[in-house]
Amino acid sequence: MATEPVNINEYQELARRVLPKMYYDFYAAGAEDEHTLKENVKAFSRISICPRILIDVSKIDLSTSILGYHISAPIMIAPTSYHKLAHPEGEIATAKAAAASETIMVLSFSSNSTLEEVSASCSAVRFFQLYVFRNREVSAWLVQRAEKSGYKAIVVTVDTPKLGRREVDIKNKMISPQVKNLEGYMSTEIVSDKGSGPQAFANSYYDASFSWKDINWLKSITKLPILIKGVLTHEDATRAAEVGVDGIIVSNHGARQLDYAPATISVLEEVVRAVGGKVPVLLDGGVRRGTDIFKALALGARVVLVGRPVIYGLAAKGEDGVKKVIRMLKDELELTLALAGCSSIKDITRNHVRTEHERPQSLL
């Protein structure tokens, strides 16, 4: 592009131009017909913002906290795999950008840099994403390393008993890099005739029997807070609160698992109501604008996580690109607050948005 990107979509276009097709498709694609992938973004457009006027918004405070940790804005970096496919500096660049942006990065288990390398790269609060393996000793070993390396929470992904059918990866015969975090502990080399390396790996090692009773096992091996990622219904939200998790992430895995699962923003309020304030509710999926963040906060999310936008910034401009993407979302969110009549995150209420099911109320 001849000019600097002015929104996330333009960063996506830059990433598409610079990345090999196989890698761009790996990051950008969803499962099967990609209905949910499209809906994650479109669902935000069906929510309108109801601004209030004549309010002093000369000073805007975007800061908030999650699990007691202060962050400069309600924006965290979601766990995403294989950052070195996007840029040679990989997760190290992303971690440094997160630290500079005063926010929290959730490091993916499938990172190209080890959790120790990322921890040593800069001083910042970080969480670690965990998959549960058939061999529970592997998962326990990863948790112990995360604790030792100073990670502050475990984000356990629970929507992957098997990997979703990502047809673009199958067509491209996507080859996944060796899992750096397992190097020296176990071999992760998979020979597959199915076309997709990530799918073969997941189906070989992830534990499809992992269930609610096993949350107690996870709690027994760590003192770190546990967030459960992959909740989409009020039933599961209620159950998660009952088993004592420390946070819930409303997520459909970036629309990469079950196609025709609901868009995350469309079920956020259902989950928030079910939890009843017992634990914080976070959201990922489809966030591309500051207005999206505002809508999620109005519907009860404490924080949103962004994944693909970070990858697009990383691919386009490395560490600086990640910082610019986060800055862009912050600037858009700040403007949204000002125009909606909110001087801080705490001022955002349910009355600031109207969903597609709500009709305008008028007084005669």
TrEMBL record:
GO cellular component: peroxisome
Family annotation (SUPFAM superfamilies): FMN-linked oxidoreductases
Active site: H253 (proton acceptor)
Domain of life: Eukaryota
GO terms for MF: (S)-2-hydroxy-acid oxidase activity; FMN binding
UniProt protein name: (S)-2-hydroxy-acid oxidase
Residues that, per the record, bind FMN: S108, Q129, T157, K229, S251, D284, G285, G286, V287, R288, G307, R308
